[in-house]
Amino acid sequence: MSRIERFLADHPAGHLHVVTGYTSMAGLAWLARRAVKRPVTVVVGDLRTGMDNFEASDAAEAAEFISRPDVRILNWYRTDKNKNGAAIAHSKVFAVEGPEGKPIAVLAGSANLTMTGLSANVETMVEAVEEDREAAFKQVVWLERQAWDATDRVMEKARPKEAAGAGCMPAFVSAALALARYAVLGRHTPTAIPKPLR
Predict the structure, then answer these.
(1) Are strands 15-20 and 40-44 parallel, antiparallel or unpaired?
(2) Ranges of residues in the chain whose predicted pLDDT is under 50
(3) What is the pTM of this model?
């Protein structure tokens, strides 16, 4: 965790891109506290695991975070129905994008955006240099373009059971968030299921 925190402190401005195989409400709450004044896009490979057991305070903080118009939560996976079989985005990357769309800095390694990955496990995170930084950032952008918005899904998990009701986020709220994200980030979030990984 200290290596990631140092990276975020060293690069406090710019759009933060995070790619992780897995996340948790506690991990999202942790990120929310460290990305208060910057746009954030998170790509998660597997949202089926690690998102059900959490403290109410972490869920509330995560819900507030992903409700921000400058925050996107995306999901990237391929089912076993694809010719290449099942796959998830399993990279662990923190990338800071500059004003011209170029990577300022990229930290890559093994830590997922979970409290186990951030504080309990022995993980390795190293800062990429020169062409490695460019290559890693290109993969991050590719994943984001191939992924689809998972905000509603995460928000549904974050809401307390008694308040969740029968369905997911009302359509008008979901549409308003999508429009706000587009206006703030100037990017389109794909809604169609992307092609299988080649």
Answers:
(1) parallel
(2) 162-172, 188-198
(3) 0.78
